[in-house]
C-alpha cells in the first residue's frame, strides 16, 4: 500500500481490476460476488452497458462547463428526478455529504425567513449523514465526531423510531425548524422503523411548521423496492437528499425540495463547481432509464424479500443470530456479538460483505441480482455465520 496516501481508511489488502455485473475480479483473476456494491452505489452492478455507453458518448462530447451557463442534461435530469421523487426542484452536488450540507443550509435559511435567529434541526441517534463539519455534527455516532470539536451547533438529538421524544421537543422548543432523518438507518445497523414512523414525523412537522427532511442517500434509487424509501409510507418530505446509486459510481448528489422549501434558495446562496456537470448527469440519466426499462424497482422488492426469507429459513434457531431484517435490497443480519472477522472469511469464499455497527452484516447487492446469485449469497453467508458462531462457542 502507498505511503503517500493519507491514512483515512483501514484498507483490506485486496485489489480489483475488473467488474462485470454482480461480480468483481482481483488482479489474480479470482471472481467475487459483490454484496457491498460500493456501499449501495452500484445499483446496476459493474460496467453496465447503458452507463458505459452514456459515459463514453458524453466524455467524447463535453465533460464540464460551469453552472454559470445552462446545462441541458442537468435540466433533463432535474425533470426526470423530480417527477419520480414527487418533488419540485433540485440542487446538484457531488456526494451525499454535499447533498446533506445543502439541506442543512436550506433549513437554516428557512428558519431565518421565519424570524428564528438560532434555528435548530432535530436529528437521531445512530444516524449517519456525512463527514463534513456540519454533517458529522448531525451524525449520531461519537466515533465520527471524536477529535473534531468544536462541533457545529444547532442540532438536537433524539432516539431513532421514537415519535414521543420529538413531540416533547415540539412542546418546549420554539427554535426548531426541521427534522433530518433516514427512512432506514444504514450505517447504524440497517435499522427499520415502525410503519407509522415517517407518517408521524410528517404530522408533527405539519403541526409545527417544520421542514421534514429525509436522508435517502442509501435508501434512494430503488434500493428499498420503491424509488425512494419514503414511498412505502406515503409521507412525502419537504426536502430529500440522494447520492450513491444515482450515478452508479459516478460522483453525483442531489438535494430536492417541494412546496415552500423549493423556493428558499436564491442566486448566490449555494453552489457547486462540479455539481451536475454533463458527464455526471449523463450517467444519472442512464441509471434512471435502466431502472425503468429493466423494471428493477420491482425486482429489488422481490429479490430482497427472497433473500431475507432465505436467511430467516437458513438461520432459524441458530443461537447467536438476533434478527434478520431488510427492505428491498438493503438487508441486515444482526448477531449478538461483534462479527467483523466475517468480512475476511467471506472474501476467502468469494463473497464481498460489510459489517456495520460492529455486529450487523449489511448486504447491499445490485438490484439486478439474479435468483442464482441471490441463492449463492444466502447459502454462502449463512454457512459462514454458522461456522463463525460455532467456533465462538468453543
Shape: globular
Helix fraction?
25-40%
Sequence stretches where pLDDT stays below 50 over 5 or more residues: none
**Mind telling me which CATH architecture of the largest domain this is?**
3-Layer(aba) Sandwich
The name of the CATH topology of the largest domain is Aspartate Aminotransferase, domain 2
How large is the share of residues in beta strands? 15-25%
| Through-space gap between termini | 36 Å
Report on the biggest sheet. Answer: 7 strands, mixed
Strands, total number: 15
Q: Secondary-structure element order, as H and E?
A: EEEHHHEHEHHEHEHEEEHHEEHEEEH
**Mean model confidence by pLDDT:** 97
Number of domains: 2
Query: CATH-wise, what's the superfamily of the largest domain?
Result: Type I PLP-dependent aspartate aminotransferase-like (Major domain)
Kindly report the spatial arrangement of strands forming the biggest sheet. Answer: 4-10-9-8-7-5-6
Query: Number of helical runs?
Result: 12
**Can you tell me the CATH class of the largest domain?**
Alpha Beta
Radius of gyration based on Cα positions: 21 Å
